[in-house]
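$ fold --in a.seq
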Amino acid sequence: MSGTQPQYPLLSAAVRRMKEYHPPLGDRGGLRLDFNENTLACSPRVIDALRNISGADLTRYPERRPLERRVAEHLGLGPAQVLLTNGVDEAIHVLCQTYLDAGTEMLLPVPAYSMYEVYASGTPARVVPICAEKGFRFPLENVLSAITPATRLICVANPNSPTGQPVSREDLLRVIEAAPHAAVLVDEAYFHFHGETVVDLVGHMPNVIVARTFSKAYGLAGLRLGVLCAAEKPMQWMRRAISPYSVNSVALACLSAALDDEDYVRWYVAEVLASREEFQSVLDQAGVPYWPSEANFVLVSIGVRHYAFVEAMRSRGVLVRDRSADPGCDGCVRVTLGPREHTRQAIAALEASLAAIGWKATGDQT
């Protein structure tokens, strides 16, 4: 074989374009306030459903359609308007494969969840980042100005991650109406902690697509369950782009139990909302800058000692997420909120960690 010949198969252009994602998981011993998961547990009914799965159940290929009917009923939609996915990550991937091609563009207000750009980068489309306004407010006018005939997908997380900032229904409607030729994804991963939705627009405005997850309030992050909601016609194309068996049988077997236990979800959400209020009050008292959140986390501004703060929290058994690499987030750390008992443990670690790194509320931390 000639020395000039490749010693392995050549990669596709799509893979070479893709941004690499490194899940910062590693050793996660301690109180997990770093990934916006449910920090306690899923519903006891889900555990019962798991116990009732037989060996024979696992020998069959999973069938998502019956559960899609169940989820559609829960959301007030028709079964043809709902697609279960392997987490919202797969939902984003499906949307990018469905809508993005050479010569097209995806508009992305930033900072944003990293997987939007990761999956879009695997297509020949151009990603157009649009920086948030002061205070991480939604950059409505800049988004509207960026819409062109090439725009095919606009991704908006509401509330946003990592900032926790909401987008008003009025602003979302202006974007949706300004881009009838583009799909507008409203990612409502943190819906339960915010309480506002545009899922009622699905089917009435054909370019509206809503994503939800079962990883947060429901506590099923390990099972990987998400859902896309869209009008029937575009949904037919999304079904072509998804693997027919991507949602596994165990996840499907647990889904009805999770939906049935509304009392558990209400309790967990109430705990998080109380935690959020208590945690933000402590930040106010300590003089730590932060952005009031509508999600199950708070983004705080530590400043130049952000890395030392994360390590100090880890040494006290509490994991938090450094978000300094995100656009506009230099010196910022994100803290997930769970039940009040967990938040009080986080508050004690926070106060000790700020003291350990010599942090002072002098106004020059950012």
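$ fold --in b.seq
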Amino acid sequence: MAEPPYKLERLGVVMEPLDGDAREAEGVLNPASARGPDEELYLFPRMVGKGNFSRIGRARVLFDKQGKPFGVERLGVVLEPDEAWERNPVAAGVEDPRITFVAGLSAYVMTYTAYGPLGPRIALAVSGDLITWRRLGPVSFAYEPALKTDMNLYPNKDAMLFPEPVPGPDGSPAYAMLHRPMWNLSPNSSAVGLPLPAGVTDPRQSIWVSYVVADSVSADIRTLTRLGHHRQVAGPQQPWEATKIGAGTPPIRVPEGWLIIHHGVTKGQAPPGGRVPVRYVAGAMVLDPQDVGRVLSRSLVPLLEPETKEESKGMVDNVVFPTAIDVRENGEADVFYGMADFRIGAARLRRIN
């Protein structure tokens, strides 16, 4: 399988915690992004307060004369963990958003992780202006007899929508969501999250896709929260993906197909009484426009690895976690990513040939 013809070049830190702001005491990270009706670029960072209490903020991206993002203007908070399904007795969180503008619905759609009583679950919110957001609620997965399990039994994260209808399982137009069910939550146990769905033999977390008929969404946007026809898209392959993979940036259309920047994870040995060390890196994957559950090409080596001080030391060391992408001219795009779970960096995506 050929590699996607792209590379990432660091642009630097774009956002870091504001001194004295308790809402950012434990980091600003893993943002969504979107161009507003005013054509300005906005980031929607996960803002982490003390005790892992997460909100979703809004900030306007600042650019220098060369078009390089270098900072932000903070514009407040757009989502708090106000709903019962976004809170639990230990913590609360609306986390790791991704935003897609869906032209056919004239709406920005945000997927995010709600850290509620049952652990992490996917939820949706919509907006017409990027300022006011309306929750559609948590996502539910229709029962598929062939899988011999209920997908709602598993925690789930890292969800994002395609910006337009794609061919569904029966060929008719459908909206599709990439997501990552979590079969195995404990590094010390092979039993948590099992048994696996029928046909799945590898317990490592991987990228899946689910669909909803486009006409039903056009009639009632709330049906975006009710997905069916679940299918595995890609699992770990390379050594830098040995522990798990997950989708990162929302899909963008490129000549080869649908491009996503995904993350791959490896784990090391925990020191006595310490945390298991992890390493998150970023790669690229191209999906077939006629069947988005089919991978056409993917990175054999990472496009971005934790190398700088900001990527190597933070709340979780050695993490680059891509979550947002802004398409530019000349086939380029800016990718925004979490740096060691504490800051936000940017990298320029360019074609190699």
